[in-house]
Design goal:
Elements: H1 10-18, E1 32-37, E2 52-57, E3 61-65, E4 68-72, E5 76-80, E6 87-90, E7 97-102, E8 127-129, H2 132-150, H3 157-194, H4 211-218, H5 222-233, H6 237-255, H7 260-266, H8 272-283, H9 287-293
Antiparallel strand pairs: 1-7, 2-5, 2-7, 3-4, 3-6, 5-8
């Protein structure tokens, strides 16, 4: 994945932040700043409680919640509300990231997404693990805001506020989606898997064939999806997918006139030899032999 861009004078910017001289000085908009940091998570232990903070990071770290300790190894986005207290233990250092501070007053400019009352932001989870799709989404916005703020003598603060609202709106949307998915993920997964079958025609192959396909669709990490499904069904994501694919392969070999090559393509195998190897591993016989025995 692409890391955050490096500033022209990154070390100087970090020193300015640590001494409370937050990067670019701007007397007309003192409650907004965005910088690139080599070690973005360092900002968590000293973030300002009179501002909101967005932190985009690639670092691996531990989150402590009471006695629970959870390792995060995916790109993550923090949204720290004023007064929020969290405990972070870093695992890796020197991974680039963005840090953005702003006040609710900064977002009072008209236009853009309706992001609700800032008092509701305290109900947001303070971080989200990001899929590649959403990491790219937020990275794009951070880059545009950074360039607008640091790349022009007179930044367009209305434009920056609009982009900030877009990010907050997306964060709230993802947080709400994650809450729903976390509660219903096993059944949602099963429905999505089963609704691909029976396959209607060789030219309309199934689209979800791997754990990665499902994880990206739900916006969760593969390991998390696997853990949830293992707990609910006693089987891994791969096992559940393969069971359905194998079952459909047997039905098509028994009751259709499709060629073995067409059956393989319909079930997501690009090459016939891959389907043959898969089926033989699952059924201890080739598709050709299975079809002969069941006709």
């Amino acid at each position: 994945m692409q890391k955050g861009p490096k500033g022209k004078n990154q070390k100087e910017a970090e020193k300015q932040v640590s001494s409370n001289k937050n990067g670019k000085e701007n007397t007309s908009n003192p409650l907004f700043n965005i910088i690139v940091m080599e070690d973005a998570l360092q900002s968590i232990s000293s973030f300002r409680r009179d501002c909101y903070t967005f932190i985009l990071t690639l670092q691996s770290f531990y989150i402590r919640e009471g006695k629970r300790k959870r390792r995060i190894s995916e790109p993550s986005l923090f949204f720290l509300s004023t007064g929020k207290k969290i405990a972070i233990e870093q695992i890796e250092k020197n991974e680039g990231g963005f840090v953005c501070l702003f006040s609710k007053e900064f977002l009072s400019q008209k236009g853009g997404k309706k992001i609700g009352n800032p008092t509701q932001w305290n109900k947001f989870p303070f971080y989200l693990e990001l899929s590649e799709e959403y990491y790219s989404f937020f990275m794009t916005y951070f880059k545009m805001i950074f360039e607008e703020y640091h790349g022009r003598l007179q930044p367009d603060f209305e434009l920056i506020a609009l982009m900030m609202k877009e990010m907050i709106w997306k964060y709230a949307q993802l947080a709400a989606s994650e809450k729903t998915i976390n509660n219903d993920l096993p059944q949602i997964f099963l429905n999505l898997l089963q609704n691909q079958f029976p396959v209607v025609h060789p030219t309309q192959p199934i689209t979800f064939t791997t754990p990665k396909d499902f994880a990206q669709h739900f916006g969760v990490h593969i390991n998390y999806l696997n853990a949830v499904l293992k707990k609910e069904f006693g089987k891994t994501t791969t096992q559940l997918i393969q069971e359905m694919i194998t079952q459909e392969a047997c039905q098509l070999l028994k009751f259709s006139t499709w060629t073995i090559s067409d059956i393989g393509k319909a079930l997501g195998f690009e090459y016939p030899q891959h389907f043959n190897a898969y089926f033989k591993k699952q059924m201890q016989k080739s598709p050709k032999d299975f079809r002969k025995e069941n006709q």
